[in-house]
Amino acid sequence: MKFLGEFLLKRKKSKLTREVYFKNLESTKTALIIYDCTDKAQSQKVRDFIRYFKEERLQVDSIGYFSKLGKNVSKPADENNFYYYDRKDLNAYKFPKRQELIKLIKKQHDLMIDLNL
Fold first, then answer.
1. pLDDT in tens, 6-34
2. Pick from 1, 37, 48, 59: most CB atoms within 10 A?
């Protein structure tokens, strides 16, 4: 199954038309931030970072991955421009199946920041 997922991902990547280029923050209008929201302290730091961008008059969307498992543990509820997903929101090939996430990923953003290091 892993081989098939990697094959499909490579196939989708070959069809990508996004361009990588330098753009300064002053001319940026939209941004997408991807991060792991499992740790509350780190999630709060990301929220502060997003607040800074909003003060700079950027339209910011964020996608947070929640990885905790358990019966009493649930992912945070989606808020205004904050979208969260967990393993239940991924299909067998590890692609998002929620329409909100798919639309957000397909939307053109001037800046994308991945904080998953």
1. 888 788 778 777 677 777 888 889 999 99
2. 37
Any domain includes 3 = no
Q: In 3D, which of 81, 83, 31, 82 has the Cα closest to residue 56?
A: 31
pTM summary value: 0.75
Q: Give domain status of residue 95, yes or no.
A: yes
Full DSSP string of 54-105: HHTT-EEEEEEE----SSS--PPPPBTTEEEE-GGGB-TTS-B--HHHHHHH
Tell me the residue range of the domain where 95 lies: 29-114
115: which residues sit within 8 A by CB, 6+ positions away? Answer: 33, 34, 35, 36, 46
**How many domains would you assign to the chain?**
1
